[in-house]
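User: I'm putting together notes for a lab meeting next week and I want to include a structural view of one of the chains we've been expressing. I don't have a solved structure, so I'd like a prediction I can at least talk through. The sequence is below, exactly as it appears in our construct file.
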Amino acid sequence: MNNLFDYATSELSQDAVICWCLNWLNEPGTALYLLAVDLLKKMGEATVENGQTIRTIQQFYKTDILVCLAGKNRVILVEDKTDTSEHGEQIRRYREQLKRLSEEERRFCGIDEN
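Assistant: Thanks for the context. Below is the predicted structure for the 114-residue chain, given as structure tokens.
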């Protein structure tokens, strides 16, 4: 199988591809819009409404990708790995940090509350 991630072997290049794919959600009517919808559904988002906007932020408090679903007050944390596994309770620590965002940080992410 021709796998893009055989070529994009570093975490940062993989992050960039994931962000690029998800950002198509902000451009409805384009050929790749459904790519973003499908990817979000694979990430656990049950429904994706028309007009839903998204913001992807790389390396936010050391998370690989923070996916912010505007208007839903929901974020998806993406921590991808290439040659290692989760260590030091990363996911728990990231979740705790996200629960303590300041008002300015929430605005930056496009969410209304923690």
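A couple of points you could mention at the meeting. The first strand starts at residue 54 and ends at 58. The longest helix spans residues 11-23.

User: Perfect, that's what I needed.
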